[in-house]
Amino acid sequence: MTRTTVASSAKQLSSSINNQLRHYSAPIDSSIPGSKLKFVPTSGTYPKGFRVSATHVGVKPSNTKNADLAFIISDTPAFGAAVFTTNRFQAAPVQVSRKILETRGGAGIRSIIINSGCANAVTGQGGLEDAQAMSDTASTMFQQRDQPDDTQGSNSLVMSTGVIGQRLPTKKILSKISTAYKNLGDDHAAWLATAKAICTTDTFPKLLSTSFRLPGKHHDGIEYRLAGMTKGAGMIHPNMATLLGVLCTDAPISQRALKPLLVEAAKKSFNAISIDGDTSTNDTLAILANGAAAADQETPPIEPGTEDYDAMQTVLTDFATRLSQLVVRDGEGATKFVEVRVRNAKSESDAKLIASTIARSPLVKTALYGKDANWGRILCAIGYTQGLSSEDSVVPASTNVSFIPADNSATKEEGVLRLLVDGEPEQVDEERAARLLEDEDLIVDVNLGTGKQEASYWFCDFSHEYVTINGDYRT
Amino acid sequence: MTRTTVASSAKQLSSSINNQLRHYSAPIDSSIPGSKLKFVPTSGTYPKGFRVSATHVGVKPSNTKNADLAFIISDTPAFGAAVFTTNRFQAAPVQVSRKILETRGGAGIRSIIINSGCANAVTGQGGLEDAQAMSDTASTMFQQRDQPDDTQGSNSLVMSTGVIGQRLPTKKILSKISTAYKNLGDDHAAWLATAKAICTTDTFPKLLSTSFRLPGKHHDGIEYRLAGMTKGAGMIHPNMATLLGVLCTDAPISQRALKPLLVEAAKKSFNAISIDGDTSTNDTLAILANGAAAADQETPPIEPGTEDYDAMQTVLTDFATRLSQLVVRDGEGATKFVEVRVRNAKSESDAKLIASTIARSPLVKTALYGKDANWGRILCAIGYTQGLSSEDSVVPASTNVSFIPADNSATKEEGVLRLLVDGEPEQVDEERAARLLEDEDLIVDVNLGTGKQEASYWFCDFSHEYVTINGDYRT
């Protein structure tokens, strides 16, 4: 059902590119490291009725040329939903966007305005006014033009990423919003530039698009599209790993279906990745659905409890998962991309807690960096996972840990490197382990043998580069 | 009341020693790095009726000369108690020691036998038999000699640390236990050698001793003594950060008082330190109390609910805190020793959860390594702390964060560098911040302003060296 135009073209590229360590931070000339080019699409299929732009503001005074204002608009009022950081210190744009969605009941959203270079976090009342002003000015673009009767106030969500504890150069930003409106476009170049404008220390823009069909008869013959961009996880003094994500679809999703679809997708994607376990003040994932692909065919919107809803959920979760994985691919200093699968757990929550504990263990992460098949550290992390549902969630004698190569051999029995079988260590073939750990990608398979539930998590390793980047080390 | 003979002599040493980064692991010749010498006592006051020894076994075949078997005995039956790792994978010696304490109700304990070089963890039924055999053989030393009527089986606790997933060379170890018994001594050299024998990749032995008096009239004129040793947190493939600790006192502590005293002391010491947040399969902290100092004066034992109990608790907690801090001093690759104090919290549990979250944040730890006054990352960690008692546990507008130098100026107002005041960032004097962060020691003060409880945590930074050590990086 899901067809990805990006993945195939990216694969063609990848074969000719060598793996390279990323540099200290994003190159100053904004060039993309060779090892990351395979993750950047060269074309895409974008949803109807959306236009996007990237505009230079110079939020950071040192930025004299790179676009740092992204504007994503829907030509018609869209339904909108978002999930926000659970951090108790919530940045001003998080508070403002949340309020707008609440006030409008998630309806009549026209745009998302995003600046990079300053997170507008821990900025007090003034910061709230700045975020509101960005949203208001963006909203004006539509209120003046085609919605004079909209009395519910701002219809633009707002996001910021960058330095915290500093006020936005608000006047400068506001003065460029009409330029951003004039710059709007709907081709691949516009989407890619916009994905780049939300980046901070990312080494490559994170953009995906896909097209799909829905099973219901009303949707017969209609091709829907879904595009998404994300950024993170780059942190240089005093930035934090703000994770921003925007999803846009031209499928007709109802107001009450949109939020649960997003929440479920986020649970298995953006909430199942880890760079270093730190959760920022600004994390936001938003979705807009304008129904433009079906607008002239009077197609009824997707409602909860239907076959179309389930299909949409599958598409959205799969898409969000792939998008979120790009964040891990660009983890600071990362040399490994690891999926940890926890299977046969007593509950999905148990599986996720264990996967997340493994993904956050500095000992596991440094061992992977060192290409060391250190099952002891994985076992140890399983054993100290907090908050499991019962005493029997982990039983040493039924615990199995294996490494699986993340290529086609993953399905073959001979591809599996067993490390721990029913709680007893295997004699590890160190040579095979070393070969397996030479690859950038790896699957860590944990079979708890205590139930039937499972969960996956994606993470990267801890490298010297990670310490260099985050220590802002002065040599 | 508490007098520490070690601290003063250590201080004299410290002034002449420069700070140095530790090497890849413990030097092969067992020499102690110059920067750590100040933490190693040159004399001590040790409890009566205890004798200790360090004997070479060669648990690791590559170890041809360093002592790796520690034997700590009480000349008379002692009360014993222990706290063990909460990891669900519990090493064989943990299971055996726990059983012995249960069977005997914590009474009639004669010794602790400890090997380094192999953790006897994840070794199945055979491993349990090995640990039991170590305990049984150690017990024989006393059963044959002076306790023919003791029918409760083993009276020796057992601990192991080192590689996991490998069986002990049990015959080799057992054959050396009578030598270990013959080697027993009670002078400083014997205690220091024993503290060294339990080390793995530690760069220095961790030993403290102190003497104290108790307020009750029965204790008038009696000097009690308390000695302790610990090891951790060194991990090289496939070791984990086993933390072992042994406390011995000649004070007369009753059977039912000993365990709660230890649990409370551990809560504020060994359970309030963090190297990297990983909890091992072998962690054990044990205490023996033989009452030898008071034995000929018919002094009644310390019982719960008395003035003496409270005094003993203060002594023990203070002592265990200083001992546990030595583990942080030897944290892998550590260049900083940081105390985080969380004050004015709604509950002690809230304060401890927040302190522990800050202590575990890779972003905070790398910023400290980089000598970066990055309050944003501290704030962020406060904000994402899980499991707090209520929604109002953290209120941005009442949150204060400061850095305090860990020397005498800590008490002076001008020594405090305010970073965040009532949720608003301060204009930081970067030059002063830089000076403050040049010191090895630092206090991070968090004032939540939501209650009256507090907790402290001690941790170290994440350095390139940490990644090198734990990545076992092959250059």
From TrEMBL, chains A, B:
SUPFAM superfamilies: DmpA/ArgJ-like (SSF56266). It catalyses: L-glutamate + acetyl-CoA = N-acetyl-L-glutamate + CoA + H(+); N(2)-acetyl-L-ornithine + L-glutamate = N-acetyl-L-glutamate + L-ornithine. Substrate binds at T200, K231, T242, E332, N470, T475. Heterodimer of an alpha and a beta chain. It is found in: Mitochondrion matrix. The active site is at T242 (nucleophile). GO terms for cellular component: mitochondrial matrix. Pathway: Amino-acid biosynthesis; L-arginine biosynthesis; L-ornithine and N-acetyl-L-glutamate from L-glutamate and N(2)-acetyl-L-ornithine (cyclic): step 1/1; Amino-acid biosynthesis; L-arginine biosynthesis; N(2)-acetyl-L-ornithine from L-glutamate: step 1/4. GO terms for molecular function: L-glutamate N-acetyltransferase activity; L-glutamate N-acetyltransferase activity, acting on acetyl-L-ornithine as donor. PANTHER family: ARGININE BIOSYNTHESIS BIFUNCTIONAL PROTEIN ARGJ, ARGININE BIOSYNTHESIS BIFUNCTIONAL PROTEIN ARGJ, MITOCHONDRIAL. GO terms for biological process: L-arginine biosynthetic process; ornithine biosynthetic process. Its EC number is 2.3.1.35, 2.3.1.1. The record marks A241, T242 as: Cleavage. It comes from Knufia fluminis. The keyword Protein biosynthesis does not apply. Catalyzes two activities which are involved in the cyclic version of arginine biosynthesis: the synthesis of acetylglutamate from glutamate and acetyl-CoA, and of ornithine by transacetylation between acetylornithine and glutamate. Pfam families: ArgJ. Belongs to the ArgJ family. Keywords: Acyltransferase, Amino-acid biosynthesis, Arginine biosynthesis, Autocatalytic cleavage, Mitochondrion, Multifunctional enzyme, Transferase. The alpha and beta chains are autoproteolytically processed from a single precursor protein within the mitochondrion. The record marks T161, G162 as: Involved in the stabilization of negative charge on the oxyanion by the formation of the oxyanion hole. InterPro entries: Arg_biosynth_ArgJ, ArgJ-like_dom_sf, ArgJ_beta_C. The gene is ECM42. This is Arginine biosynthesis bifunctional protein ArgJ, mitochondrial. The keyword Transport does not apply.
